Amino acid sequence: DVAIIPKGSGETKVGTGAAAATITSSGAHDLTLDTNSGTNSGVITITDGANGNISITPNGSGNIVLDGLTFPNADGSADQFLKTDGSGALSFAAAGGGLQSIQVFTSSGTYTKPSGINTIKVMCTGGGGGGGNCPNSAINQQGSGGGGGGTAIEILDASSITSETVTIGSGGGAEIAGGTSSFGSLLSASGGGGGKAAGGITAPGSVGGGTGIGGTYNLRGGAGEGGNEFGPGEQRGGTGGDTFFGGGGAGVLGNSGQAGSNGGGGGGAVSNQPPTIRGGGSGGDGIVVVEEYA
């Protein structure tokens, strides 16, 4: 062995001070740096050869500290990542923030938050209004479509949420407005207006949609249309208003209106075969969708 021992508190220096210095092994061998002849010492090993690794191994439960950042001394689990506590300590943690699950409510009930969920996105849509009828007195005239339910959309911190009551607004029957949907007391959406009967449509011919309440985004449901006439005996009832989820019922040539879905308004009716009475389509029941994020 060759021992280089400074005198007193002196230092061991490499190089002349006038150029870069190099510490290397003699021949094709690894270079190892440790203390106290390797007793109770961490080890840095530079592996000889092309693409060789540099291994840094602390002693015992010691940690590697690079530029003030303390790395964990054991591997984490599969798919984990390194996170910092803001004070220089790094640790492994499960990946978070992604969409984990979705709950869809088409009837009233109770939302229960699963474990591990930190944020939820709630989309609440009211019921659609029913389409307008076509009575005997209005043969060859068209009823208007019902209005679509409004929609409220909100992203909520779920840390204090355990469960919430979910109310689904019913779709209206012919010419009846849709009901209000709600997610607890946090947000709600009113239903669309009921369609107008054939022969009773006055300006404006369309029927208004519902509105969202309490969301970051409060959307109005689509208006129910007044219908069209293509020629003698060729009338189509008004199409029901759409919602955020679509679903407006179609107006049909010379027939009853189509029912709405997902809060969409029902289609308006037309009858060109007296004395047959055609009915407006029912509005679609509302819907509440909850996206759950870790």
Q: How big a fraction of the residues is strand?
A: 25-35%
Largest sheet: 5 strands, antiparallel
Work out the radius of gyration.
36 Å
Strand order of the largest sheet: 8-19-10-11-16
| Element string (H = helix, E = strand) | EEEEEEEEEEEEEEEEEEE
Total helix count?
0
Protein structure class: mainly beta
Basic shape: rod-shaped
**Unreliable runs:** none
Number of beta-strand segments:
19
Beginning-to-end CA distance, first to last residue: 59 Å
Mean pLDDT, rounded to whole units? Answer: 91
SSE topology:
Layout: E1 31-33, E2 43-46, E3 54-57, E4 65-66, E5 69-70, E6 80-84, E7 90-94, E8 99-105, E9 109-112, E10 119-125, E11 151-157, E12 163-167, E13 181-183, E14 187-189, E15 212-213, E16 217-219, E17 228-231, E18 234-236, E19 287-293
Antiparallel strand pairs: 1-2, 2-3, 4-5, 6-7, 8-19, 9-12, 10-11, 10-19, 11-16, 12-13, 13-14, 14-15, 17-18
Provide tags for this entry.
five-stranded antiparallel β-sheet, 19 strands, mainly beta
